Amino acid sequence: MKTSQSDGKHSDINDSDLPAEVQRLLKLIRELKQQLQEQQQQLMEVMTDTALDEEARKLALAGIQASIGTLSGALMNAYNALIQLFKDLDMSSEQITQATALIMK
């Protein structure tokens, strides 16, 4: 069922005329950005959770910060792979503009 939800969430990417590998990276970038946003929200929640003692807060924050670091690295790798793919596929400026617009959604 996740696939159908994912397809709906990425229907604009699926409907684009971009190469399949570019579409795959665009979807990955969106997913990573969403996961990063969720981790940042969780970080804020832990920082403001008065029910946690100091040690529990530090441990929770360290775990979330590690996750944010991992996601940030994966996102940068995906962006770099996309840029390389633009070059390798000799994509037109219109295709690059379309891909960039899809990333921003």
Description:
There is one protein chain. With 105 residues, this protein is mainly α. Helices cover 84% and strands 0% of the residues. It has five helices and no strands. It has helices at 2-9, 11-14, 20-48, 54-88, 93-104. α3 runs antiparallel to α4 (54-88). The mean pLDDT is 92.
- Output the radius of gyration: 17 Å
Main β sheet profile: none
Number of DSSP helices? 5
Strand content: under 5%
Brief overview:
By secondary structure, the protein is mainly α. 84% of the residues lie in helices and 0% in strands.
Features:
105 residues, mainly alpha, single chain
List the helices and strands and how they pair.
Layout: H1 2-9, H2 11-14, H3 20-48, H4 54-88, H5 93-104
Helix pairs in contact: 3-4
